[in-house]
Hints:
Helix content is 60%, strand content 6%. The protein is mainly alpha-helical. It has a single domain (33-162), classed as Recoverin, domain 1. The strands form 2 sheets. It has a two-stranded antiparallel ribbon with strand order 1-4. Strands 2-3 form a two-stranded antiparallel sheet. Residues 83-104, 137-167 are annotated as: Disordered. Residues 1-21 form the signal peptide.
Amino acid sequence: MKKLLMISAAAAVAIPAAALADHHRGARADADGDGVVTMAEIDARTSERFARLDGDGNGAITRSEIVEAHAARLQRRAEMMKERESEGMKEGHKMGHKRMGGRRMGHGRMFERLDTNNDGQLTLAEFRARAMERFARHDANGDGTIDAEERAAAREARKARRGNRGE
């Protein structure tokens, strides 16, 4: 009886944890937590990110605004890591910069790719365009949503394109 109780308790903890882990992979974009990402959720997240990056609020993002936002984020991460270390956490959560091979949008070619009219600033339309293209590419069945299976397929395709580097 005791053994059965222990197994039941372990399963009760493990199953929700696995579901949470699967949900977390798409959680940033899945605003309502229903397990699928819609174009509206991507659009809202993209608009929020644009507003955060548009430091002066003029409706356009410059390279310097991106660099400043990146520096501020690095500072916040450094402070968080210092706080974690002071609380006794060692290397529990690495916060490296694996995206785009270590390059960030303001430091590499990404800014130029997004700045389609080459005016040195990104409008919301230019900023959204790449996100919408990516959404369409990941929405394999064309139903207007990206589910866990499509996210997994996109992740595997990305790994294959990158040659599994850094992942």
